[in-house]
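ok, trying the design again with the full structure, not the truncated one.
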């Protein structure tokens, strides 16, 4: 989901997983280069009623709470994605990890395939949480840790061709 722009070149790219090709630069518009999606992998409550979110790319974002007693479990739940403005790294939006959302598979044999999340099966101590994703042509199961939600009705980032 990183944005790549080379000095002197007019083209801007987003690094995305593609089927059978791994991470691949995908051309994007200048408007789309102003943000990226980061998967929320951890969440902690810290001093002062604030919430610290740990993102898949190593960033930690501190979000002030509106009301210290207000629960933020659903809004900032791990597994969801944060739309992060570039270069100021401000939060632009949240995509929750839930059924009905669009998911992009970032690892495994289905890497680079995106579709609608139809079911989320809870995991156990020995078995990972499993997500069922439906595309226009197929349906498959994959571990939830391999999926990043990219939107609800449509994708927030241009995913290029399949």
């Amino acid at each position: 989901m990183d944005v790549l722009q080379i000095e002197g070149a007019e083209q801007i790219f987003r690094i995305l997983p593609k089927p059978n090709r791994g991470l691949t630069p995908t051309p994007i518009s200048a408007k789309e280069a102003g943000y990226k999606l980061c998967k929320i992998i951890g969440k902690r409550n810290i001093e002062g009623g604030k919430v610290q979110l740990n993102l898949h790319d190593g960033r930690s974002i501190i979000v002030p709470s509106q009301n210290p007693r207000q629960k933020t479990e659903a809004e900032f739940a791990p597994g969801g994605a944060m739309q992060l403005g570039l270069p100021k790294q401000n939060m632009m939006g949240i995509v929750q990890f839930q059924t009905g959302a669009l998911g992009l598979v970032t690892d495994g044999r289905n890497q680079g395939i995106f579709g609608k999340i139809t079911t989320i099966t809870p995991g156990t101590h020995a078995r990972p949480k499993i997500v069922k994703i439906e595309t226009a042509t197929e349906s498959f199961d994959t571990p939830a840790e391999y999926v990043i939600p990219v939107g609800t009705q449509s994708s927030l980032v241009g995913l290029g061709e399949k």
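Keeping the full-length input from now on. The first strand starts at residue 3 and ends at 5.
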